[in-house]
Structure formats: C-alpha cells, structure tokens
Automatic annotation (TrEMBL):
Pfam families: DUF604. The chain crosses the membrane at residues 37-54. InterPro entries: DUF604 (IPR006740). Keywords: Membrane, Transmembrane, Transmembrane helix. This is Uncharacterized protein. It comes from the Eukaryota. PANTHER family: FRINGE-RELATED.
Length: 504
C-alpha cells in the first residue's frame, strides 16, 4: 500500500500512546519522574566515564615514549643520590673513639701492643691511666694519655677483685665528658688488646648508631660466663657502645655503680647498668677475650665465620708464631691484614684427592696438612692446643665445641706458618707463603704420601673487601698443580656454583 507524504507525517511514534493509538492511562507522578531518573542516570555514568578517562590518560605514557622516560630518569637519579648519600653517611673510623684502660705498672710493656694498631692521624682515642707515667720519644704513636677521676667515694666489697674495676668501668663516661664531636661509637678495650680496626668498622656499620647498642662477645671460658654472665661483653676483648646509649649511661652510671659494690670487675658493672637501662648484649663473634692459657693455635686456625675484630690477653698466651716475641708475632700478622683485612684468619677446607690429604688454610696465619680425610664438621672445631682459664685440660670448660688433639701419630697435622705476604705484580691476587714448622714428627706406617716432603705452601687469594657484605660462608680452597718440588699450591676464593668442601 502506498503511503502519501501527508499520511506519513501523521505516523509518528508516541511513547505515551498504546499500539491502538489511544493514550496510555499512567498516573501523573510517574509520567514526570521517569524521564528525570533517566537523565540523572545518564549524567552520572557520563561524568564517571570522563573522570576515569582523564585519569587514565594523565597517568599513562605515550606510545612513542622511550623505555626510560623523564619521569623514570628522575626517579633513577633520586635513587642514585640516595645511594650516594647512604655511602657518604656510612660509619668510618673517624666516627669511633677508643677508650683504653691501662695501668701505670705495666704501661712500658703494654703500650707496644697499642702501637701495633693505633694510627694517630686517622683515629681518635684516649688512654686512661691510674697514675702518671714518663713518656718516650715514640709515644707520639699513641693516643693522648689522661688520668682517671677519683673513685674513692664508691664502695667496693669484692674480696677477690681490685677496686680499679670501678675506675675502668667509668672510662666510657669520662671519654664522653671530653665533648668530642661527630662521635657515633665509643669502643672500650684494654692495653693488652689488639684491634683489627678495619673489621671493627665493618661490624659497626651493620648497626644504626642512633639507637641504643651494646656490642661485644663472651668469654671462651664456660665457667667465667657462669660466674659473671652470659649476657656480658668482656671488656678485654673490647666492646662498642653507641653514642645515644653512652649519653644515657653517663646520666645514671655513678648511681648505678653505688648499687653494685659486690661485683668483681668493670665489665660486669657495665652490664649491670645496661640491664637497668634495659639494653641487652648484641653478640659479635669477632671480639676475643681469650680467657685461656698456652697456645692459641687451635682457636686461630679454626676461627669462626666472622670478621676478626680483637685479640686479648696477649701477655698470658704464647706468641702466635713460634720462635719470635709476642710483639714480633703480631707484627707479622699485620702484613696480611694490610692486604686483605676482611679475610684475615678465615678458614678454608679442601682435599688433595690423589694423596688422600685434608688441607686447612687459616689465611694469613697457617696451613695444616693431615693424612686421611677429616670432615669439614670436624675441621671447623678448634683443636685443644690450649688450657682453660684455670690451667686445666678440661674439654667441658669452654663455651663452644672443641676437638681433642689426635693421639694417632699418623693424624698429627703438619703445620706451615706464614712467612711472607704480598700482592701479585701481574694480577690483583695476594700471594702468601707458609713454611713448615720444623719439629719432630712421630713415624707413621700408613701407606700414603708423606706430607713431610712438602716444605712450602703457597696460597693465592684475591682481596675481598666486601666479604662481610654477603651472607656468612667459608671460602673454598682448591689444591693446584705445583711446578716446584717440595711445594704445594692452593687457591682460595669465593665458592663457585655448586662447590662444596668435600672429597667427592
């Protein structure tokens, strides 16, 4: 059917009409409300869509932007600057002040230990004496000397001790009173203590100097720890106190000392005051009290996996190298220390499979060769070359595991002591040379190569100043082919992927 233009203009859809063309019967309120609701709904959806789109566009990167945009480069620059600031803000030796407890009676002898490690142009410290002493021409190599304050007002009732313990316990507070600037840590030690200062700095860098920290270690003697405390830093081995904690200690220490007249020494008084302040000991294994007698060889040759920080009681034990004085022995130890302080005395364990030998390297100190195969678990335990603090050979007297010196003549180790240390000319490697200790060895009937045919062990090792920035792990060593008869060559370094200390 054809529809004329006039008719077509009449056919217009009216939503208010029924299909029959009659108007729909809807109440007046519904007729007005429904269009308004529809309009508001459309507006809300539209506004939401526009806001979301604008936000998305503003936070998105254009397709033609480089992978590292200006915004990204700025973030990287800020991050780099933060890293630089962090590096510049790291604790250094200039932030440490040493307080050294000394006695006028022993000063002429013990000041030589301090000269081994103290550098007047780089370090700050004070020697606190009980009386005045005469000075020598070379005493400019020592820290300034001061006389401790009068302590007669403090009670002391321990019959076995000496009241000088009160004087020594106040050294940190007296050093703080000097008003030195830019101090982060006060480090306490005795006049017969030798510090490896580079490792001391490495240890203290791990901690926030703005917080309360009391850092040190225990005695090697189990009985000493029982009598005094397993929560006490032994003062001879040295301990560190952060500046804020030293300030808090200064404010209350004299009152604290009055409360403990019956305590024996300075370090237990210090720990008693720390207990009142609520600060526990943070233990670091590299501080060594060395409450032992005899030969330290077993302890040094199996040093724990921790940086060597201090050595104490050097007048009590034998020289750490044979046939020299105590000071001369320590001077020799300082040679490899200057090449790679982080690796000093660190033990490595490996095997010569062809000869069925076990080799233990205590870098910068000694090398041992054993006939047969000893497990790493056994080798990392110190052998009992020393006596306990009560001069007894009692293996239950130590605060750590030890192993007996073997009675089997075939299992006696061949010991090679350090004689030379240098940095290789053509490579960035340390070259340390160890000569066999010439002592009688018992005869052995085992049918295997005799280590007595080895005169010299040469160890190659790259300096590793960032050793303690990584998780603790022993270095690995590998026996190399030696070109010279009577010589053994060993390479020491970071363990390779999958490498372990084992025969197979």
């Amino acid at each position: 059917m054809k529809v004329s233009q006039k008719d077509s203009e009449k056919i217009v859809w009216d939503p208010m009409r029924s299909p029959s063309g009659n108007p729909l019967k809807i109440p007046g309120s519904q007729t007005r409300t429904l269009p308004k609701l529809m309009v508001w709904l459309i507006l809300v959806v539209s506004v939401t869509y526009v806001v979301y789109t604008l936000k998305l566009v503003s936070t998105s990167r254009a397709c033609n932007d480089e992978p590292f945009s200006t915004h990204h480069r700025l973030s990287t620059l800020i991050s780099t600057n933060d890293s630089v600031k962090l590096a510049l803000n790291r604790t250094g030796i200039e932030h440490i002040v040493f307080g050294i407890a000394a006695s006028a009676k022993l000063w002429d002898q013990r000041k030589n230990y301090i000269k081994l490690w103290y550098k007047p142009k780089q370090m700050r410290g004070v020697v606190w004496l009980d009386n005045k002493v005469s000075t020598g021409n070379d005493d400019g190599l020592l820290p300034p000397i001061k006389i401790s304050g009068n302590t007669s007002q403090f009670p002391y009732k321990n019959r076995q001790g000496h009241r000088s313990a009160i004087r020594i316990s106040r050294i940190v507070s007296e050093t703080l009173r000097l008003g030195l600037k830019n101090v982060r840590w006060f480090v306490m030690g005795d006049d017969d203590t030798v510090f490896i200062t580079e490792n001391l700095v490495r240890v203290l860098r791990k901690y926030d100097h703005n917080q309360y920290y009391y850092i040190g270690s225990l005695s090697e003697s189990h009985l000493q720890n029982i009598y005094f405390s397993y929560g006490m830093a032994y003062g001879g081995g040295g301990f560190a106190i952060s500046y804020p904690l030293a300030k808090a200690l200064y404010k209350m220490q004299d009152r604290c000392i009055h409360r403990y007249p019956g305590l024996y020494g300075s370090d237990d008084r210090m720990q008693a005051c720390m207990a009142e302040l609520g600060v526990p000991l943070t233990k670091e294994l590299g501080f060594h009290q060395y409450d032992v007698y005899g030969n330290l060889f077993g302890l040094l040759a199996a040093h724990p996996v921790a940086p060597l920080v201090s050595l104490h009681h050097l007048d009590v034990v034998e020289p750490i190298f044979p046939n020299v004085t105590r000071v001369q022995a320590l001077q020799r130890l300082m040679i490899p220390m200057k090449l790679d302080s982080a690796g000093l005395l660190q033990q490595s364990i490996c095997y010569d499979k062809a000869k069925t030998w076990t080799i233990s390297v205590s870098w910068g100190f000694a090398v041992q060769i054993f006939r047969g195969v000893f497990s790493p678990r056994e080798m990392e335990m110190p052998s009992r070359t020393f006596l306990n603090w009560y001069r007894r050979a009692d293996y239950t007297a130590y605060a750590f595991n030890t192993r007996p010196v073997s009675r089997n003549p075939c299992q006696k180790p061949f010991v090679f002591y350090l004689t030379k240390a240098k940095l290789g000319e053509s490579s960035n490697e340390t070259v340390t040379e160890y000569i066999r200790h010439r002592v009688p060895y018992p005869s052995c009937k085992w049918k295997m190569p005799d280590p007595a045919k080895i005169d010299t062990v040469v160890v190659y090792k790259k300096p590793d100043p960032h050793l303690w920035d990584r998780s603790p792990r022993r270095n690995c060593c590998r026996v190399k082919e030696a070109s010279k008869k009577g010589s053994m060559v060993v390479d020491v370094g970071v363990c390779r992927e999958g490498e372990i200390s084992g025969v197979n």
